[in-house]
Design goal:
alpha/beta, Urease, subunit C, domain 1, Diaminopimelate Epimerase, Chain A, domain 1, seven-stranded parallel beta sheet, 20 helices
């Protein structure tokens, strides 16, 4: 009897639980420093069961195990965009796209084309214009748009989301005129006579947006699902959603509860007093609905954006000497919310782009941490785009994470020196300087401000060149990341920045089996070839949520 029990015990030890899926024939960059490269992995119950050689992985094969032949391709952990706007992406996919327009005339032409498709009087929305890409880089006025589309109210959001252009019909609907005052934290661009030109910056946007018909819940649901599908297509397994309303978060929860939410979303609660009070009372929520949703951070705003001259600068803009930007929140408000968040166990992530905006946020965080000393708070500054050299070391000293979007550098480098002057440009998009102090830099895109493709940010991080590989050698190349750092900036560093490092960020045993199959090796190909990479498949918890085509994707066979 004892002998039989001993044999049974030995069999139990030598027979591991059978895997649901085994990935073989791949070059796997695990982003696990203890085992950086592997040839195979096994998945069970949505978690990584084993990482190592193919021979070892196949020891976990059972009669129902699916074998994924990686075709010799590269596999990396599921990429995470550490700063994006999920619902906005969904709505943008349905609006008039103004991305890439080279003139105001082209913007107007695209709106005219949409106006032919919709009934008179129906609102038309668009997004993506950037006057810095036109021959005339001044803000446009509404006149040409109003003449071309008189029968529809039109609102067109600038690429950065911090300014909009409204036509005459939209301004009439909003009751905006020469007598309308600039709101605190906002600016109405005006003619010499005081009439609105049609451009509304930062909080002034709300003067027009308040009369735009809101989307229905069903429209928001469809937009969310479309945005998730688009994210999966580009190899994203997760996003940090930088500011959503309680209504939107409720929708996310509803979709995740129903099992239709194929993305891991670390959602930040938008700065609304009622919503913040609600979530503080509820308490931090992590890994809800099978690890699809986290609700434990608050999104604040310090200033506007550099492209629309709303970023708050310590000294005036070099190309607009009477303007130093806009503060969207008072220092007292930033400190108050940060202090209450520390007491409630919440993280605070504050948008700050200008050097004055960043300094005010760091000061507010330091004051809050003095009031409520807290270890491992992981407060973040979203963008940290233009920094005074005295403030760069403060991030690591305070334990504050600079959450940056490297692709912004390659989008802005053509005109940023005109805004800032040479001296301030040395502290702009300075991720190497921050890394050298001991900080980490979670990477993102800020989509729909930039394209969803996370490899654009990877390429920008390692080359500081645009998609056409300009300028040769990179713009201020001393600020480049290594490829290993760039991969971490899209995997383990976002995981840490979202308190997720124990469950995601690397292909390690016990973590979620989120991974991406690529058709080329982004860690070794020449930099100019990185952006030719295609995502062949995206897996979340061992489930394929995107497969490119039958002939180019990894072969999936059961054997």
């Amino acid at each position: 009897m004892i002998s039989a029990l001993l044999i049974f015990s030995q069999l139990a030890i030598s027979t591991p639980p059978r895997a649901d899926l085994i990935l073989t024939n791949a070059r796997i960059y695990t982003v696990n420093d203890g085992h950086p490269i592997a040839g195979a992995l096994a998945v069970r119950d949505g978690l990584v069961q084993f990482v190592g050689s193919e021979r070892e992985a196949l020891a976990f094969r059972g009669p129902k195990t699916r074998i994924v032949d990686g075709g010799g391709h590269v596999v990396i952990p599921g990429m995470v965009d550490a700063h994006a706007h999920l619902l906005n992406l969904g709505f943008t996919l349905r609006q008039v796209s103004l991305v890439g327009t080279k003139s105001y005339d082209e913007v107007v032409a695209r709106v005219v084309a949409r106006a032919r498709e919709v009934p008179a009087g129906q609102w038309i929305e668009g997004r993506g214009w950037d006057q810095n890409q036109w021959g005339d880089t001044r803000f446009p006025t509404h006149d040409a748009l109003s003449r071309a589309v008189p029968g529809h109210p039109v609102v067109l959001t600038r690429v950065d989301g911090h300014a909009l252009l409204a036509n005459a019909a939209a301004m009439r609907a909003a009751g905006v005129g020469a007598g309308t005052r600039d709101p605190e934290g906002g600016r109405i661009e005006r003619t010499a006579s005081g009439e609105p030109t049609g451009v509304f910056v930062d909080r002034a946007k709300g003067l027009v947006e308040r009369v735009v018909p809101p989307p229905s819940k069903e429209e928001a649901r469809r937009a969310t699902l479309e945005a998730i599908k688009e994210a999966n297509r580009w190899g994203l397994a997760g996003v940090h959603d930088a500011g959503e309303s309680r209504q939107t978060i409720d929708l996310f929860e509803e979709l995740a509860r129903a099992g239709t939410f194929d993305l891991r979303v670390y959602v930040m609660v938008a700065d609304d007093s009622a919503a913040v009070a609600h979530y503080f009372a509820r308490g931090p929520q992590s890994a809800l609905y099978g690890g699809k949703l986290w609700i434990r951070s608050i999104k604040l705003y310090a200033d506007g954006a550099l492209g629309s001259r709303g970023a708050a600068l310590l000294d005036p803009y070099s190309d607009d000497p009477k303007n130093s930007g806009l503060l969207l929140s008072t220092p007292a408000h930033l400190r108050d919310v940060a202090t209450r968040a520390l007491r409630a166990g919440f993280q605070v992530n504050t948008h700050a782009i200008g050097d004055r905006g960043n300094r005010i946020v760091l000061d507010a965080y330091e004051a809050a941490l003095t009031d409520v000393p807290t270890a491992d708070h992981r407060f973040r500054v979203e963008h940290a785009q233009v920094l005074h050299h005295d403030d760069i070391p403060r991030f690591a000293k305070l334990g504050v994470i600079p959450s940056m979007q490297t692709v912004h550098q390659t989008s802005d480098m053509y005109w940023a020196p005109n805004r800032l002057g040479y001296a301030r440009t040395l502290g702009a998009y300075a991720w190497r300087s921050l890394l050298q102090t001991g900080a980490i830099v979670p990477n993102g895109s800020d989509f729909p401000v930039e394209a969803v493709n996370p490899l654009l940010s990877f390429h920008s991080a390692v080359s500081r060149e645009d998609a056409s590989n300009w300028p040769p050698g990179g713009w201020f190349p001393g600020e480049r990341m290594t490829r290993e750092e760039a991969l971490k900036s899209m995997t383990v560093w976002p995981a840490y920045a979202a308190f997720q490092e124990s469950v995601t960020g690397s292909l390690s045993v016990g973590k979620y089996a989120d991974f991406v199959v690529l058709d080329r090796d982004i860690m070794t190909v020449p930099p100019e070839e990185i952006l030719g990479t295609q995502v062949l498949a995206t897996y979340i918890a061992g489930k394929a949520v995107f497969v490119r085509t039958a002939d180019s994707a990894p072969r999936i066979t059961a054997r």
